[in-house]
Design goal:
Layout: H1 3-13, E1 35-39, E2 42-45, E3 50-53, H2 68-78, H3 89-101, E4 107-111, H4 114-129, E5 133-137, H5 155-158, H6 169-172, E6 175-178, H7 183-192, E7 197-202, H8 218-228, E8 232-236, H9 248-253, E9 259-262, E10 273-277, H10 279-282, H11 301-316, H12 319-342, E11 347-351, E12 354-358, H13 367-370, H14 375-387, E13 390-391, E14 400-401, H15 408-427
Parallel strand pairs: 3-13, 5-6, 5-7, 7-8, 8-9
Antiparallel strand pairs: 1-2, 2-3, 4-10, 9-10, 11-12, 12-14
Helix pairs in contact: 2-11, 3-11, 7-8, 12-15, 14-15
Bound molecules: 4'-deoxy-4'-aminopyridoxal-5'-phosphate.
4'-deoxy-4'-aminopyridoxal-5'-phosphate (PMP) is lined by residues 58, 113-115, 118, 141-143, 154, 203, 208, 236, 238-239, 263, 273.
Length: 428
């Protein structure tokens, strides 16, 4: 079976042939590749091609595909049974590791996805404060929970459908939208909705409208505004958690959050999310408190084993972060050099091991600027890079994820390919 014939079959039985919209390659044209295997920094498709992978399952695969220790740990776990719906030791180990490493997280609740983590965190912020409204930022994506599908990033942005049908007006009206990196837009919302705002949710590094770093003082400004207005600051660290550094964005930027959400890296590729915060906030969660949240498969022993093993490796080898950040820096510098030499309108953003190339000459600091990117050009770039054996996100508005298994050679090959492709695009 090749990718094209699998896609034809898939389209008949799955909406768009996929289980998550951006996988469908709709934004870049062409058919999605069906992946058969990943090994280190490479993935192979069912057509027999190999690619250097910069999607890395959209972030979880920070150590590379098919990591031997993670694979072995899962293998030994599965023979004890897949799920019990009762507590297991590995959940405690994972929770202890997370709470001892992430600032302001005294307690944590495991869930099954980033979406669930955010939905629960938002409910908790409302339950804890007794207020209804939440401020989010235009272009930030926080999963597909109803209240977060307002001016959302990622697939919702790529498909030009920022507001989903099926989200009721009643739900959407409690989500207020501010402009990323614009503290005054947040201040205004607090003024206009006095004593009504439960919390502010943000991707501390935006990575779902492409990568956009927070400007200096922006996150501290949010902290101050939340304190002043008795609102909670929620850091959605589904992407940044255990990626920017082991303690995530709070440690990286030295800013305290009240609730933190996790996903991706904490599951190592298994379906895991989590949310945590200070003890007095987390004690509001059932069965201790009145904020209800539950899950048949939450804290699943196999998923916990995979995640715990990955986190343990990350915690014991801090060099990992130096390596992935340095590789990402090389990419950033290489892209910038190529853009300069070719005099192409390109803007490159990077934070840690997250990189985005935008086809615009504007400084990309918020959603509006991200949208100035020439997505047609990105589609061409994506497809030519694929031909060169480089697998990028099939959308302008996503990040490149660098893993510990990427090598200097991978980076050189990627930059060689990019120079060639960008040179050709200039000719077109
Ligand atoms: N928050 C952020 C910041 C994300 O990037 C994502 C997914 N990319 C989510 C939440 C939702 O996570 P999931 O897809 O696991 O539901």
């Amino acid at each position: 079976m090749n990718s094209n014939s699998l896609y034809e079959r898939a389209k008949k039985v799955m909406p768009g042939g996929v289980n998550s919209p951006v996988r469908a390659f709709g934004a870049v044209g062409g058919n999605p590749l069906f992946i058969s295997k990943g090994e280190g920094s490479k993935i192979s498709d069912v057509d027999g091609n190999e690619y250097i992978d910069y999607v890395c399952s959209w972030g979880p695969v920070i150590l590379g595909h098919n990591h031997p220790e993670i694979a072995k740990s899962i293998e030994s776990a599965i023979y004890n049974g897949l799920s019990f719906g009762a507590p297991t030791e590995i959940e405690v180990l994972a929770a202890e590791l997370i709470t001892s490493s992430v600032p302001n997280v005294d307690m944590v609740r495991m869930v099954n996805s980033g979406t669930e983590a955010v939905m629960s965190a938002v409910r908790l912020a409302r339950g804890y404060t007794g207020k209804d409204k939440i401020i989010k930022f235009e272009g930030c994506y926080h999963g597909h929970g109803d209240s977060m599908l307002v001016k959302a990033g990622s697939g919702a942005l790529t498909l030009s459908a920022p507001d989903s049908r099926g989200v009721t007006h009643g739900t959407a009206k409690d989500t207020l939208v501010a402009v990323y990196n614009d503290i005054e837009s947040v201040e205004r919302l607090f003024c206009e909705n006095k004593d009504e705002i439960a919390g502010v949710i943000i991707e501390p590094v935006a990575a779902n409208m492409g990568v956009i770093p927070p400007e200096e003082n922006f996150l501290t400004g949010l902290r101050k505004l939340c304190d002043k207005n008795n609102a909670l600051l929620i850091f959605d660290e589904v992407i940044t958690g255990f990626r920017l550094c082991f303690g995530g964005a709070q440690e990286f930027y030295g800013v305290d959050a009240d609730i933190v959400t996790f996903g991706k890296v904490i599951g190592a590729g298994m379906p895991v999310g989590a949310y945590g915060g200070r003890r007095e906030i987390m004690e509001c969660v059932s069965p201790l408190g009145g904020v209800y949240q539950a899950g048949t498969l939450s804290g699943n022993p196999i998923a916990m084993t995979a995640g715990y093993t990955q986190l343990k490796i990350l915690s014991e080898n801090k060099e990992i972060y130096n390596k992935i950040n340095n590789l990402a820096l090389k990419l950033e510098e290489g892209f910038k050099r190529a853009a300069g030499e070719l005099e192409l309108p390109m803007w490159v953003n990077r934070v840690g091991s997250l990189v985005s190339v935008f086809f615009t000459k504007e400084c990309v600091e918020n959603y509006k600027k991200a949208k100035t990117s020439d997505t047609g050009l990105y589609s061409k770039y994506f497809n030519y890079m694929l031909k060169e054996g480089i697998y990028l996100a099939p959308s302008q508005f996503e990040a490149m994820f660098i893993s510990y298994s990427h090598t200097e050679e991978d980076i050189c090959k990627t930059l060689d390919a990019a120079r060639k492709v960008l040179g050709n695009l200039k000719e077109l």
